[in-house]
């Protein structure tokens, strides 16, 4: 509006009166503009108008209190509607707290699960690569939604308090909010299509006699991260050209919303049919093993419940029950379950496919046992080192030890290593040979004083016993 050319002659100038944006008005005319979109009850008054009078002198008509006069009766609602609107706003505020907690918990658990799958090299395989991409899509979805809500909540108080509303309506603020909205739509679409990739991979793994996941992994990447671009970009173009209002978070023209909604519904329905096919394959395989009915039923139920969060099968119910086809309290019930499952789904997936996975638990236990063993050996070495003489200039010569041999340097133990040699059966146990086998096996590099007795192989062929002192 600010870039439009101004009319010639006498006219009432365009302005913003902290309620609505007014265009130029001709003298002795009534100017009307639609009700402001930021009203909490805008859906009830979206067809109404605000009226103002332009006087013959080109000035807007003022009221008796020297304020600019306007008729906004069409944009107001009665008290009963306002009370219902306040109640609905309170319900939505509770819903927002619920799904914010859900996304935060899912974000934490998914980040930990992603680190675990990337840290252990033995877990690197095509199946877990797909899991990591799915975890990443859940993480991006949670971050984008929380960021979008933070931007919207930051702007909402200014609208309500009528303070700095020009700043709120500035191009920078609106552009940043729209960018966050576009990124959120892409991340949500990528999440749905990575759920589809999980279904495709599992179906191919169970259905094909010979299946190599590595051959199709590039295709999986293209489906998961590339397909959302095909419908998010057209949606951005259509919104910018035909519905460039607010932060693009309200869909006034549902035809534009179907540009994003249709591909997501297709992914949900395809995943549902894949789910049915996988259940059929599992039933046939369980029957082939001739299991007892109780075990058969338990394993089938376990597999089914495990597949539901992985493939997002619960979305089929929400795809049928849309807001346009529900009335009364049913929309709030539908919205609650949809927000609950969408926000906590990442937590369920991280638990099922990482935290309680037997393969992951085995690798964590191995790492933990190795760490404990290393700490135990370190403590033993510290205790041993505190009770033994240190190697250096203060070490006593070999002649001070009992039964010394003519080995004045470690080179006398080249053939029979003092570290690996066993003590002679007739020799008394030496206090410095504690935990000798473990030290030799692990090759821990530390200073210790280890005497070892070896059988001499002298020129006389006798059984002279020699004692060699060395350092390991």
UniProtKB/TrEMBL annotation:
Residues 1-79, 95-357 form the G-protein coupled receptors family 2 profile domain. GO terms for molecular function: G protein-coupled peptide receptor activity; gastric inhibitory peptide receptor activity; peptide hormone binding. Keywords: Cell membrane, G-protein coupled receptor, Glycoprotein, Membrane, Receptor, Transducer, Transmembrane, Transmembrane helix. It comes from the Eukaryota. GO terms for biological process: adenylate cyclase-modulating G protein-coupled receptor signaling pathway; cell surface receptor signaling pathway. Pfam families: 7tm_2, HRM. SMART domains: HormR. The chain crosses the membrane at residues 97-120, 218-238, 258-279, 300-321, 333-356. It is found in: Cell membrane. Belongs to the G-protein coupled receptor 2 family. This is G-protein coupled receptors family 2 profile 2 domain-containing protein. It comes from Perca fluviatilis (European perch).
């Amino acid at each position: 509006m600010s870039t439009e050319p101004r009319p010639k002659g006498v006219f009432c100038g365009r302005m913003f009166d902290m309620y609505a944006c007014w265009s130029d008005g001709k003298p002795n005319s009534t100017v009307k503009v639609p009700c402001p979109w930021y009203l909490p009850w805008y859906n009830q008054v979206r067809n109404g108008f605000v009226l103002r009078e332009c006087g013959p002198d080109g000035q807007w008509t003022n009221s008796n209190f020297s304020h600019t006069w306007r008729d906004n009766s069409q944009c107001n609602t009665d008290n009963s509607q306002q009370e219902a609107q306040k109640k609905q706003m309170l319900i939505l505020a509770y819903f927002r707290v619920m799904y914010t907690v859900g996304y935060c918990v899912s974000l934490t658990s998914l980040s930990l699960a992603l680190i675990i799958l990337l840290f252990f090299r033995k877990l690197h395989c095509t199946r877990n690569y797909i899991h990591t991409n799915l975890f990443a899509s859940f993480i991006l979805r949670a971050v984008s939604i929380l960021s979008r809500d933070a931007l919207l909540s930051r702007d909402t108080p200014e609208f309500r308090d009528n303070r700095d509303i020009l700043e709120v309506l500035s191009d920078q603020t609106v552009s940043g909010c729209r960018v966050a909205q576009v990124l959120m739509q892409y991340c949500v679409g990528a999440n749905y299509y990575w759920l589809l990739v999980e279904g495709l991979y599992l179906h191919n793994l169970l259905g094909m006699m010979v299946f190599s996941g590595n051959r199709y992994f590039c295709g999986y990447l293209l489906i998961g991260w590339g397909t959302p671009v095909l419908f998010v970009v057209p949606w951005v173009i259509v919104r910018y050209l035909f519905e460039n209002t607010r932060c693009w978070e309200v869909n006034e023209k549902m035809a534009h919303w179907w540009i994003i909604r249709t591909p997501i519904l297709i992914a949900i329905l395809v995943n549902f049919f894949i789910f049915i096919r996988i259940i059929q394959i599992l039933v046939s395989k369980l029957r082939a093993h001739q299991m007892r009915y109780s075990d058969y039923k338990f394993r089938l139920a376990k597999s089914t419940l495990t597949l539901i969060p992985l493939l997002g099968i619960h979305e089929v119910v929400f795809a049928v029950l849309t807001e346009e086809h529900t009335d009364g309290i049913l929309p709030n019930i539908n919205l609650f379950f949809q927000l609950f499952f969408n926000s906590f789904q990442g937590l369920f997936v991280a638990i099922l496919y990482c935290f309680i996975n037997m393969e992951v638990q085995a690798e964590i236990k191995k790492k933990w046992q190795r760490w404990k063993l290393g700490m135990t050996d370190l403590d033993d070495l510290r205790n041993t080192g505190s009770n033994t003489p240190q190697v250096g200039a203060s070490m006593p010569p070999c002649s001070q030890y009992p039964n010394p041999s003519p080995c004045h340097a470690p080179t006398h133990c080249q053939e029979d290593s003092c570290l690996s040699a066993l003590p002679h059966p007739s020799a008394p146990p030496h206090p410095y040979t504690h935990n000798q086998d473990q030290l030799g096996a692990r090759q821990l590099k530390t200073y210790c004083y280890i005497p070892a007795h070896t059988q001499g192989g002298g020129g006389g062929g006798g059984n002279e016993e020699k004692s060699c002192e060395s350092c390991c």
